[in-house]
Amino acid sequence: LGTGGDGGKKKKDEPEGEKKANLEDRIVNTNPILESYGNAKTIRNDNSSRFGKFIRIYFNQMGKLAGGFIDVYLLEKSRVTYQQPNERGYHIFFQLIEEGPVEGLQEMILFSTDPYDYFFMSQGKVKVDSIDDNEELEFTDQAFDTLGFSLQEKQDAFKLTGCICHFGEMTFKQKGREESCEMDDPIPGQKASTLLGVENWQLFYGNFIRPKIKVGTEWVYKGQNADSCLNSIAALARSMYNRLFLWLVDLCNRTLIDPTMKKVNFIGVLNIAGFEIFEFNTFEQICINFCNEKLQQFFNHHMFVLEQEEYVREGIEWEMVDFGMDLEATIQLMEKPWVFLLFLKKKHCSPKLLTNPLRIN
Hints:
By secondary structure, this protein is of the alpha+beta class. The chain has twelve helices and nine strands. Helix 2 (30-38) packs across helix 5, helix 6 packs antiparallel against helix 9 (226-256) and helix 7 crosses helix 8. Mean pLDDT is 85; it is low at 1-19 and 353-358.
């Protein structure tokens, strides 16, 4: 790849100090951003990818690097608001509390330097011995610059990330015996509103306390209890983080495309999220494991089973090797219409329908 970029040569009419990083450097520097926003510590891995990605590296007719494109899928959104005791949230949250690499960062996102001030990021571990969060923040910030992110885009990414942590501090209290509630401490909501550019922070709270819903052909306001408000905030935090992640990937892809170069061939690199089995497995982890196993079976079938059959047809002496199709029955069960995955999704998305919590061991 090193010989395929544009070499970082400065154009004649390009001002000094605005030299654009070469294509190779831009492809490499997508990694710190994707790792900061998509990787986290799990029980078995301090830097586990919690999303899948497929990277295409394009080449022109001369075999020179011509660009790249990143597809992402299955981001583990539940980790934004919940972590098991020996796990940690996404790395970026813990980079934001580090002072030094990004001047004025905490003041800009209205943040403290204590991770225990934020519930969403402190349910599990807050420090990993093998990771220097201060150094990683520096790498992330440099990657933003190398990829040509504007100052506004970089600040927006930090502000939205900090806003999600402030969501976790929003609290509500019940109104006596009524099926409604009111705000408890308004400060976290005020901070979130400021970062989002929402002038009326009371209206922001009101969207959780009395959301506007459509009943038939009319719009009505529905009072929510405290638990429902907290569930709504957690859902908003997860959805916002997912959209932020996809937006960052789009901005990365924007810098990896060179429209002046013809793309003839590409090399595809697949990096799937980590296959792990925990004592308590979330719906997302089940989906990740299913996807992993499906890919493994596809690989085994096309690289080994079909290849061995070709050997037999060609009369080559060969002892057939079993590469493990023993989970094929499990895959078929999960793929059947209206069976396993649909049942899990229904239970996962409609907790009020459960008479007992769904626990998968």
